[in-house]
């Protein structure tokens, strides 16, 4: 626990780095690359200029989520960041939609490392190492050199504070880690990142979102453009937005007991199951267990009293708005 607390404190008060190289990575070239992705993904890809990026989802025809991803546009290609182990499956599915478009997909999982710098000191650390300003919009990115290593720096928060993803050649991963440590960053692990991202209310695929969920149930409005035109699954997303509602949705749960519930725990109300927990941690900021999970529409209101039940027992909980911990500027 002492290491987790030290790592968490670094991420909230200074700067910590996480090795996120397990994430999937794809390079897309060809003159039709943005136009093709525009018809595949939920957000406006075609409107992105080099140096810009956006989160998006890839849906099936019924609006169910096949993947959550982030798109980064450069001058000569589109880079896509995917959940771990999702690259091959996603590329196989996309390939079925390619007919005459000039768009060429290449899995580059092993070619690049991704180091995630998180915390209020992340920007200053990177600017000091790169000798260049990094005034980037969310998901904006730029190429810089750190200790002679060419890296792509992306404005990509993974917790309540500011943060960046750094794409670098995998062969230079250790050298880049050493440069970050020498500059004052604290190496941190997966348990710390899990606390940060749950506190920030960030669902991950497939822990919190999978192909059993339609996109509106995730409440991830930032992944959707309602003006871009057609894409796979658009009919379901638009119908819920303009003419209907979802019967369940991803919500925050503050557990009023002391034990962190299991993923998959039942959410109960008045003796009936009204949802399930997908991720749970002990929040360091709040000093108690918190969870992401799906609850039925009747219990969306913040403050709704529920019970979380797993094999170890039942605990009272209440529904809250996300994020649990407000974002730092």
Q: Could you describe the 3D structure shown?
A:
Helices cover 20% and strands 34% of the residues. It is built from seven helices and 17 strands. Strands 8-9-10-7-1-11 form a six-stranded mixed sheet. A six-stranded antiparallel beta barrel has the order 12-15-14-13-16-17. Strands 3-4-5-2-6 form a five-stranded antiparallel sheet, covered by helices on one side. A hairpin with a 2-residue loop joins strand 16 and strand 17 (313-320). The longest helix is centred in the first third of the chain and has 12 residues, at 2-13.
The oligomeric status of these chains comes to single chain
What is the succession of H and E elements? Answer: HEEHEEEHEEHEEEHEHHEEEEEE
Percent of residues in beta strands = 25-35%
Q: Mean pLDDT, as a whole number?
A: 97
Unreliable segments of 5+ consecutive residues: none
Helix share, percent: 10-25%
- Which structural class should the secondary elements be placed in? alpha+beta
Profile the largest sheet. Answer: 6 strands, mixed
Number of strands: 17
Q: In whole angstroms, how far apart are the ends?
A: 27 Å
Overall morphology: globular
Strand order of the largest sheet: 8-9-10-7-1-11
Instruction: Report the C-alpha radius of gyration, rounded.
Output: 20 Å
Helical segment count = 7
